[in-house]
């Protein structure tokens, strides 16, 4: 295997080329070619059981990896459910499936069991795919592969252009995919998203192998595929934009009540919470603690377009928070389960702060040598935990064991253990 420190800038993939066998690569002038139509045209949207059964049969009979993508309606609908699923496989063609009309795709998932799924930014799509019964046992993430290979731009459009020499039209990425029927230009866009995904996967596999990073990537893909579903976030209301302005416990209670009321309304109406009430409005109400509907209506975010009934709903939430006994008011900040914020280290533990500075510098230098983002080399939270409470001895064996405990993959442990051992010996005096 070649030296992993070879950079992507030296790669033959940095120029356009390597396009699908039947379409050629970039043009003779080297300019990328616009990809305007799927090879077999836009397939019909699968929206009934009989058509779905045919797709399942076709994809079970295909060969090689299967390209998978999903479109959500973020910013329009409540939650992150899939509103369109796209697949493409050699010998099967492309399929566009409506998961609202066909909400159980577990049969398709089972038909593809054991097949490698190719996704771009897999962690974004896997939760909504899991909801409809599609869970891969093996995957290849082309975005993550691009990061590990050192590409500076890893969006699908940029990767397809830089690696394969084609330009994807990305104008419909943020549309309301819950729209029915879906317009033909949107369907064309969706089909093209999986058109070259397997070709991109094959080219990136060769590039990772050339750089000596293929085994690293395979470990990362296995970690994604085997990860359990994410736990629900504790106190999600604390992520309200502008929360840094809210300091008193009574005000925090108002944020919580308004956020939870908004969430219930949004879920019932199946709309994005931001379309029900903005974060700005929630924070303004918390800071002002309005005494009545008239005072609430004067605040930013509760403008003249809001009806009396809606205003009364929000004011009632404010009053519930104002009526809570002190014992039920939320505490400022969230319970800290790990190290304190790094900005506080110099006062709390100067030696730990020195270790963290040394570790960050060492990891940054190594990431630059390996030509990949620092966060892909080792999770920043892992570095903080190691520096705050170093393992006893802080030798290669103990540091490697601690890294494994925090979820680092074997390749990461091999790469970062030596530099972290040296950083953990820093005593705050420069020694």
Topology (SSEs and partners):
Layout: E1 33-35, E2 45-46, H1 49-60, E3 63-72, E4 82-90, E5 93-97, H2 106-111, E6 116-119, H3 122-131, E7 138-141, H4 142-149, H5 156-164, E8 166-168, H6 184-195, H7 197-211, H8 214-226, H9 249-269, H10 273-276, H11 279-288, H12 293-297, H13 308-323, H14 345-348, H15 350-370, H16 374-377, H17 380-388, H18 396-405, H19 410-424
Parallel strand pairs: 1-8, 2-5, 3-6, 6-7
Antiparallel strand pairs: 3-4, 4-5
Region (Disordered): 1-40, 324-343
Biased composition (Low complexity): 15-32
Protein name: Ribonuclease D
Number of alpha- plus pi-helical segments:
19
Strand ordering within the main sheet = 2-5-4-3-6-7
Radius of gyration: 26 Å
CATH topology of the largest domain: Nucleotidyltransferase, domain 5
- Measured by DSSP, the beta-strand proportion falls in 5-15%
Organism: Streptomyces carpinensis
Protein name: Ribonuclease D
């Amino acid at each position: 295997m070649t030296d992993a420190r070879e950079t992507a800038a030296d790669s033959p993939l940095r120029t356009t080329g390597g396009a699908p066998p039947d379409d050629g690569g970039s043009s003779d002038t080297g300019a990328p070619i616009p990809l305007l139509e799927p090879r077999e045209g836009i397939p019909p949207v699968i929206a009934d059981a009989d058509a779905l059964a045919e797709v399942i049969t076709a994809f079970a009979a295909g060969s090689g990896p299967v390209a998978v993508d999903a479109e959500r309606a973020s910013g329009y609908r409540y939650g992150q459910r899939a509103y369109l699923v796209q697949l493409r496989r050699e010998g099967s063609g492309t399929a566009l499936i409506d998961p609202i009309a066909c909400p159980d795709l577990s049969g398709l998932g089972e038909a593809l069991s054991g097949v490698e799924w190719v996704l771009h930014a897999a962690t974004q799509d896997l939760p909504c795919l899991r909801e409809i019964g599609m869970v891969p046992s093996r995957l290849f993430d082309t975005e993550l592969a691009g990061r590990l290979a050192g590409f500076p731009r890893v969006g699908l459009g940029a990767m397809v252009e830089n690696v394969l020499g084609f330009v994807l039209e990305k104008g419909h990425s943020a549309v309301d995919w819950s729209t029915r029927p879906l317009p033909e230009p949107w369907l064309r866009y969706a089909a093209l998203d999986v058109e070259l995904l397997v070709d991109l996967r094959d080219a990136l596999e060769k590039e990772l192998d050339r750089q000596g990073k293929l085994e690293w990537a395979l470990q990362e893909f296995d970690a994604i595929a085997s990860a359990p579903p994410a736990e629900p976030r504790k106190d999600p209301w604390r992520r309200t934009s502008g929360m840094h302005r809210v300091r008193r416990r009574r005000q925090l209670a108002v944020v919580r009540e308004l956020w939870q009321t908004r969430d219930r309304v949004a879920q019932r109406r199946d709309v994005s919470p931001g379309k029900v009430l903005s974060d700005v409005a929630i924070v303004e109400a918390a800071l002002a603690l309005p005494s009545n509907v008239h005072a609430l209506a004067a605040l930013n975010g509760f403008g003249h377009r809001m009806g009396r009934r809606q205003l009364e709903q929000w004011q009632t939430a404010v009053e519930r928070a104002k009526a809570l006994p002190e014992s039920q008011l939320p505490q400022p900040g969230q319970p800290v389960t790990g190290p304190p914020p790094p900005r506080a280290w110099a006062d709390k533990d100067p030696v730990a702060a020195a270790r963290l500075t040394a570790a960050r510098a060492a990891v940054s230098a190594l990431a630059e040598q390996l030509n990949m983002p620092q966060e892909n080399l080792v999770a920043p939270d892992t570095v903080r935990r190691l520096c705050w409470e170093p393992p006893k001895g802080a030798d290669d064996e103990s540091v490697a064991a601690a890294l494994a405990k925090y979820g680092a993959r074997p390749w990461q442990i091999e790469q970062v253990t030596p530099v972290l051992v040296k950083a953990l010996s820093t005593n705050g005096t420069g020694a």
